[in-house]
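Bumping with the actual sequence this time:
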Amino acid sequence: MSKLGTVTGPGAVRLERLLPGPIERLWAYLTEPDKRAKWLAGGPMEVRVGGHVRLEFRHANLSAETATPERFKSMENGHTTHGRVIRCDPPRLLSYTWGEGTQGASEVTFELTPRGSEVLLVITHHRLPDRKGMVGVASGWDAHVGILEDVLNTRAPRPFWSTHARLEAEYEKRLPE
């Protein structure tokens, strides 16, 4: 399994990680606001088809690193995005729109598969507008899932922004033009 995400089609990136289980624990980190806030974004989620999703990003709370890069300063005090659950099969599948109500709305799907004491997490983000969006989304998911891995392994979370910058440079080199 490649550590970096891959392109699965036009406007789609996929990331796979084997993480400590059990599956119900990982499901909780996808759906419960307090747990999700530790690696991605807090905010309420109605875990049912048609349910509202509000992701409240507070990147400064994810790790000890506090410096926000200049180009992300507009998100320094938080950023919120909305969506709707479009598929839900607890604890194995969750899919929702991302950025609902905006011109660039996309869709993210989380698939969980038990593998012994671990769980394979597959994230596929669809309907991304262009290569730049794919690079940004792939590096963002990769950095966030790295923090999730640290949290699940009870380690101090890696620095978010510097990890994101390193991954963005890597995806910039690797994703097809």
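The tokens above came from a reply further down the thread. Residues 6-60+84-169 form a domain with the Alpha-D-Glucose-1,6-Bisphosphate; Chain A, domain 4 fold (CATH 3.30.530.20).
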